[in-house]
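To illustrate the input format used throughout this study, we show a single complete record. The first block contains the structure-token representation of the backbone; no residue identities are included at this stage. The design step must infer an amino acid for every position from geometry alone.
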């Protein structure tokens, strides 16, 4: 398995703890939660069950009855004698208790419940039954290890991690699985015999977001452009409908969520809450704030406070690379073209997407940027700056501002280009205006350094001295 070394070590330590363990693994859909558990505990899982998708392929809702019947079939599959399907989750978990007791030989018993949020259908009493199972029986058995997974991150955080009822403080370990980094993406592709330049691995990341499941569709022997066409634009493209499936599988109100994400995709710097409400026609109430909160917890959007603003001026921006790629490239393709990427790989439209997507890639790799600057151990905060223009003043944007405790402010520019980046006269003038703007607002003890984050470095010239430091793709690939 590529990556996940820390998570694997933690899971194995919990397996050997000699105590009852209740572990929640959560994270974005397709990020590899199930694969992590399956590979870590290969041939060591005593009982496993996955909840049914709320809506099947025939658009039929899988309610309580279907979930319970499927649970009983999982019990039979793991050796329980055939019995009538339970009529409630209390009865279902009691049947699980009886089965585990009947096969208990004193060794560690691993119970793996996957897609847990799907089991919690309306008015099913699932959480109450899970509480009874753990508090009344499982937590008293030193050899029991209960692992639960879920892609509906907001459900996992609300119902388990931040539970203030019967499951309060019951988790012994919570593990949020993040997408791969650039380094892990490269290793994953290489492990599958796919050899790409780092320039193309970065673009692959910018389109797929470091999601292992999506990376698994990359084919050996094809160029990045050919792979992108196969995944998104071919007649049988595997990921063409993934965007809609993604939202439908983890949100009870997918259209509302997609509407918010669509609005956020139209401005890279994002929008304030009031702007989002105005553009989506949502009511100014607590439920709207909850929608934004759920999208944020699910790692689709990020909130931030623009430089120089207060917490009252929170902005929200779309940060999920896959969603950004779908909305700015895939969904906006009006004419069918099975070789769209091959035909448009150098177009202005694709280059515009690359510029935005590379900025998001850099934000995900702040650790690597700080390492390249030699300030990983220095406490710092980071933000962006957008100054809207008017009749008298030109607007201004700074991609990334790193404000350090050692009294240095790094103003970072991100440029995704195919060669060394060349600074022209007009660009240097623009950068000096930004520096002057910051000089007027910084503390007297602070200094400012212009920093370039780009693909292949900085081309030396009469204007290149504006940058004190250039960070390259190779720096971003550091583990």
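Output of the design step:
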């Amino acid at each position: 398995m590529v990556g996940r070394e820390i998570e694997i070590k933690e899971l194995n330590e919990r397996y050997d703890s000699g105590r009852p363990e209740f572990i929640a693994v959560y994270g974005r859909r397709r990020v590899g939660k199930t694969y992590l558990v399956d590979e870590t505990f290969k041939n060591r899982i005593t009982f496993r069950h996955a909840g049914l998708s709320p809506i099947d392929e025939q658009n039929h809702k899988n309610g309580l009855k279907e979930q319970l019947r499927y649970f009983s079939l999982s019990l039979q599959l793991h050796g329980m004698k055939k019995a009538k399907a339970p009529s409630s989750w209390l009865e279902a978990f009691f049947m699980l208790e009886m089965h585990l007791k009947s096969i208990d030989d004193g060794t560690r018993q691993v119970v793996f419940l996957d897609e847990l949020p799907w089991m919690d259908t309306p008015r099913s009493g699932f959480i109450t039954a899970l509480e009874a199972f753990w508090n009344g029986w499982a937590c008293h058995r030193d050899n029991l290890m209960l692992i639960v997974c879920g892609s509906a991150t907001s459900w996992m955080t609300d119902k388990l991690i931040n539970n203030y009822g019967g499951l309060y403080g019951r988790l012994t370990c919570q593990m949020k699985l993040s997408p791969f980094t650039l380094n892990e993406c490269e290793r994953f592709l290489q492990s599958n015999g796919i050899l790409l330049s780092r320039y193309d691995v970065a673009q692959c990341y910018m389109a797929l977001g470091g999601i292992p499941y999506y990376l698994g569709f990359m084919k050996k022997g094809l160029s990045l452009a050919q792979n992108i066409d196969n995944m998104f634009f071919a007649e049988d493209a595997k990921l063409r409908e993934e965007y809609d499936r993604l939202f439908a599988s983890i949100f009870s109100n997918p259209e509302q969520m997609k509407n918010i994400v669509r609005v956020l995709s139209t401005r890279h710097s994002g929008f304030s809450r009031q702007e989002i409400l105005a553009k989506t026609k949502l009511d100014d109430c607590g439920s709207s704030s909850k929608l934004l909160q759920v999208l944020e917890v699910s790692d689709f959007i990020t909130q931030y406070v623009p430089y120089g603003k207060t917490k009252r001026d929170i902005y929200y921006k779309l940060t999920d690379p896959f969603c950004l790629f779908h909305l700015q490239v895939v969904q906006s393709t009006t004419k069918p073209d099975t070789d769209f990427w091959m035909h448009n790989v150098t177009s202005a439209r694709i280059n515009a997407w690359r510029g935005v997507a590379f900025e998001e890639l850099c934000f995900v790799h702040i650790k690597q940027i700080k390492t390249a600057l030699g300030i990983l151990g220095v406490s710092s905060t980071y933000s962006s700056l957008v100054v809207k223009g008017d009749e008298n003043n030109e607007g201004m944007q700074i991609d990334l501002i790193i404000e350090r405790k050692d009294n240095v402010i790094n103003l970072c520019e991100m440029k995704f280009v195919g060669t060394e980046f060349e600074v022209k006269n007009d660009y240097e003038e623009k950068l000096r205006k930004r520096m002057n703007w910051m000089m007027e607002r910084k503390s007297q003890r602070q200094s400012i350094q212009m920093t370039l984050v780009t693909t292949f470095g900085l081309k030396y010239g009469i204007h290149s001295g504006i940058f004190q430091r250039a960070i390259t793709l190779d720096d971003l690939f550091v583990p």
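Structural context for interpreting the output: The chain is about 45% helix and 15% strand. The radius of gyration is 25 Å.
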